[in-house]
Write a structure and sequence with these properties.
The chain is an all-alpha fold. It has helices at about 5-30, 30-64. It has 2 helices and no strands.
Length: about 60
């Protein structure tokens, strides 16, 4: 497994972790959800965008 694939897996796992934390925070409906739900969503979108970008780079490099 190459370096780019490892980085991709790291960002995919980070995205999943942020989603799980967000879902748990919504389920508990506590102070964490009210204070940090917007930050968690932004973090998820950022990690997801980086993962997609790395995926596109991997595909592009594989074709060349």
């Amino acid at each position: 497994m190459g370096t780019m694939q490892i980085i991709l897996v790291i960002f995919m796992v980070a995205t999943l972790a942020v989603v799980v934390v967000g879902v748990i925070a919504m389920a508990v409906n506590g102070k964490l959800n009210k204070n940090h739900s917007n930050k968690l969503m932004r973090l998820r979108v950022l990690f997801q965008a980086i993962a997609v970008l790395i995926f596109v780079i991997i595909i592009w490099l594989a074709r060349n």
